[in-house]
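Q: A reviewer asked whether we had any structural model of the full assembly, not just the individual parts. We don't, so I'm hoping you can provide one. Inputs are below.
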Amino acid sequence: AQKITQTQPGMFVQEKEAVTLDCTYDTSDQSYGLFWYKQPSSGEMIFLIYQGSYDEQNATEGRYSLNFQKARKSANLVISASQLGDSAMYFCAMREVSGSARQLTFGSGTQLTVLP
Amino acid sequence: GAGVSQSPSNKVTEKGKDVELRCDPISGHTALYWYRQSLGQGLEFLIYFQGNSAPDKSGLPSDRFSAERTGGSVSTLTIQRTQQEDSAVYLCASSLAPVAGGEQFFGPGTRLTVL
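A: Here is a predicted structure for the entire assembly that you could use as a starting point for your response.
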């Protein structure tokens, strides 16, 4: 079963508008971390934002915020005031804390295009 | 300071040849990860090193793949008898500590093309 699901292969948004990228996850662990990464066409993976499963408040980093709904197992990324430079592939990822696994499990990504 | 570096940035090889990919993690980072990203796909975990502990090899797709980490720093991913399906971008990441919130810093990747 998919542990991280990103149902939007591609999204378009007008410059200066807000956009929400969806992410749902599947885990039986109580302790886990959720991450969003941005991958521009140049290929590097850029860390955007982190949410811990025990964090009561939604994480925010500048124009990025994470809409964390634990009961629904969703961790949507909200980008406010989109800029042309936001055009990129966006990946949601999870790390489960229990057991020895420490790697990130990634979703298939959402290609965001910001229109001028 | 310096980020994660990987070499070579591009590698073209013939089917059946062996290749070695190198990763230099950020100094002081004890955790090191290798991932593979096929065209248009998400990242697939390959192997994880933490300090002097035995590596977690659970993501390696076949016994043609192996990795070493020498002196707790530089890592080499080796693919023997390469196949065309091995063509992908191989990404290395490192982090300070493998806790839930430990951010992984990624290198620029090595693009491997097997002809």
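A: Points you may want to mention in the reply: The longest strand of chain A covers residues 88-96. Chain A has a mean pLDDT of 92.
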